[in-house]
Amino acid sequence: MIGELTSDQIDQVMFRQIIGRIGCSDAGKLYVVPIAFAFDGNYIYAHSKEGKKIKMMRKNPEVCFQVDEIDNMAHWRSVILWGRYQELKSERERQRAMKLLMDRIGALQTGETSHSKEYSQAPQIVEKKKRAITFRIEVQEKTGRFEKP
Questions:
Q1: Is the dihedral of CA 123, 128, 131, 132 positive or negative?
Q2: 13-26, pLDDT tens digit by residue?
Q3: Which residues does residue 4 pair with via DSSP β-bridges, in sequence order?
Q4: Is residue 22 part of a domain?
């Protein structure tokens, strides 16, 4: 059975995942790359070094974002969100975004041989990543599909 995900189901997929694919375009050229992210219900947060993706999003801030969960070829969920790129400039915004990212990504890295780190040191993390661009995508529209046996 193939169907559409509800808004709540879309958010659940977004909250469970940490890797998505961001799509941006400039001058008729499309560019899609995977990124680590954190989702808070309204925004997708990420950071990146200066490069093609950042340059393209600065020129055209309208982007899309795709996330999926694939159990097998007959059992999957796929989400696409559209929104607007916003570069975070203030130190407070950058620290909040980096803490959210590190808390989310760090929580999923804990296992028998790795240990969760204390990410309350977001200001130090931001300081070390001064050259990184911290940004968010304001979610304006979302859709999702699923297939299950």
A1: negative
A2: 999 999 999 999 99
A3: 145
A4: yes
